[in-house]
Specification:
heterodimer; A: alpha/beta; Rossmann fold; Alpha-Beta Plaits; 2 domains; six-stranded mixed beta sheet; four-stranded antiparallel beta sheet; 14 strands; 29% strand; globular; B: mainly alpha; two-stranded antiparallel sheet; 11 helices
Chain lengths: 308, 257
């Protein structure tokens, strides 16, 4: 497998001397589902902007499937589909025309464009709205329209900048399923998101960017292994007035019927249940408290100086 | 991109532009026709009948070519400036900028969009003028060539204005403070031979005078200036403006951060 994206020494200094990117190196393998995480202002959107040529880089090299974005810009762009964070289509055009026009900008024959537009608009539930003005669509529909638009020329690399921001849970899940489907069909996907659950459940590899630098670049599995503590919430049958005594474990009462236990890496949970049984506390259910990736993300970003 | 793909991209931009101004025809096509009809009625019929002849023709015959040209100029300009600036404002220009469409195709597409609207309005105004006077075109090739080149020139100007504009106010400054005065003083309503010698010299610095006069020459066969110099001047302006436009697109100024 080759590299879908290869970034070397990417720097961006804006006109006001703000250094948004400080020499980023990043590679994404073909077929990967990759997450690019970082707090607001970390450099995620600038990186994507450079890749799709909306931001002029100060230094460094970027290639998409081996095509340098400066030397072979036409081939590089043919391989690339972009779903930006903000809605960037004419609000007065119809989804049908927006998608067909985008196909035209990639030089796609009209008949083929119509076939694909219908296929994707149907798949993403926009077919009935194809002749409405885009401004009449809901926020979720507008996001899906941008996905259809990005896919119309069948790019091998799809980059989505916060694709599910402001989208309700049901729709978010259906978008995840769709993205998984196209990834399994061979499209490499890079995703930036604030929903860390999204990255954890969709992505195989991950890079965390903060203050214009990559602070972590590894597989999601490997990253989660570095987590030292996990928090579990146990729901009890009887109401509690104080947390049970659990030697060697930090335990706190979070509600009448719920306690939270902190478990160190490698620590067994068996003593917890034995101690609870001895104290007559019956456990009805147990769940992981927070998104594990979120804990890691917060600890990494705060190690690197907080939000940029 | 192959040549065939570039052709598809060009057709797409041009179709999008034609569709845009056709969709809002009440704002784009109808107003100039009504305005020019009022000019025909007031300047041509009511006042013109008291003015008598101008350059050997009735005032209506004299003023019609200038008014057609005026509508072509203003509509070519305003189509590109408003369309391209709106695309910048709504960020929909990014749809083209992230695609492999070469910059020269983007420029040609938008300019041809401006030309399409300029010529559409010019055609409608010409049809309207036939209700007031007879037009016997003396030189069809010159008439078509100058109206096309003028439309290209002002579409390019509109494009440059749109790139630099930061607000919707900025796209009306040039038409209001530069284009309209130059057009009114560009021999649309009078022959510069009526002016004192000094003002005749000043008028010769106005590029619109040359375009209006060549167009009038194509229709009526009379002109205040040398036709071949006018063509050379228009071509030179087009080359300069196209070069500036391409520089703006290639450098990404005000389009890419």
């Amino acid at each position: 497998m080759g590299k879908a994206l290869d970034i070397k020494g990417l720097q961006k200094v804006y006109g006001n001397d703000f250094q948004a990117l400080k020499g980023i190196d990043l590679s994404v393998e073909e077929g990967d589902f990759f997450a690019l995480l970082g707090p607001n202002g970390a450099g995620k959107s600038t990186t994507i902007g450079v890749i799709c040529s909306l931001v002029k880089k100060t230094a460094g090299r970027v290639s998409v499937f081996g095509h340098d974005i400066d030397q072979d810009f036409s081939l590089a762009k043919q391989e690339l589909g972009i779903v930006p964070q903000e809605f960037n289509f004419s609000q007065f055009e119809t989804p049908w025309r927006i998608v067909l026009n985008q196909a035209g900008y990639y030089g796609m024959p009209r008949e083929l464009a119509k076939e694909r537009a219908e296929e994707y608009l149907r798949k993403l539930g926009l077919w009935e709205k194809r002749n409405d003005q885009a401004r009449m669509l809901s926020g979720g529909m507008k996001r899906r329209l941008m996905i259809v638009r990005a896919l119309i020329h069948k790019p091998r690399l799809l980059i989505l900048d916060e694709p599910t921001a402001g989208v309700d849970i049901e729709l978010r899940r259906s978008m995840w399923e769709f993205l998984k489907e196209i990834n399994e069909a061979g499209t490499t996907i890079i995703l930036t998101t604030h929903y860390l659950e999204e990255a954890e459940s969709l992505c195989r590899n991950i890079a965390i960017i903060n203050h214009g630098e990559i602070v972590e670049n590894t597989s999601v599995k490997a990253l989660l292994k570095t987590l030292n503590k996990e928090h579990f919430v146990l729901d009890t049958k009887e109401a509690l007035t104080q947390p049970p005594e659990l030697n060697g474990y930090h335990c706190q009462l979070i509600e009448d019927h719920s306690i939270e236990i902190e478990v160190e890496k490698g620590q067994s949970l068996n003593p917890v249940f034995l101690a609870l049984q001895e104290q007559g506390v019956e456990v009805l259910s147990m769940r992981n408290k927070a998104n594990r990736l979120e804990e890691l993300f917060v600890s990494m970003v705060s190690k690197n100086g907080g939000e940029g | 991109m192959t040549l065939q793909q570039q052709w598809v991209a060009l057709q797409t931009i041009l179709n999008k532009e034609i569709h845009r101004f056709s969709r809002i025809w009440v704002q784009t096509l109808l107003p100039p026709v009504i305005t020019m009809s009022l000019y025909f009625v007031i300047f041509g019929t009511l006042i013109g009948s008291r003015i008598g002849e101008m350059g050997g023709f009735s005032y209506m015959e004299f003023v019609v070519p200038g008014l057609i040209m005026m509508s072509v100029i203003t509509n070519s300009y305003s189509n590109v400036v408003s369309s391209f600036y709106s695309a910048k404002f709504q960020h929909s220009i990014e749809e083209i900028l992230v695609s492999p469409t070469p910059n020269y195709i983007i420029l040609i597409g938008y300019v041809l969009g401006g030309v399409a609207r300029g010529l559409a309005v010019g055609f409608l105004v010409t049809l309207m003028s036939l209700l007031f006077t007879k037009l016997q075109v003396q030189n069809l090739a010159i008439t078509i060539a100058i109206v096309f080149l003028t439309s290209v020139l002002f579409s390019l100007m509109g494009f440059i204005n749109a790139v630099f504009a930061n607000s919707f106010d900025d796209i009306s400054i040039v038409p209001t403070f530069i284009l309209t005065p130059l057009t009114y003083l560009g021999g649309v309503f009078y022959s510069i031979s009526l002016l004192p010698e000094f003002w005749q010299g000043v008028s010769l610095l106005n590029p619109i005078l040359y375009m209006v006069n060549v167009f009038r020459y194509g229709i009526l066969g009379v002109t205040d200036i040398q036709v071949h110099y006018a063509f050379m001047g228009v071509m030179a302006f087009i080359v300069v403006l196209a070069t500036i436009s391409m520089y703006l697109l290639e450098s990404g100024k005000r389009l890419r951060s």
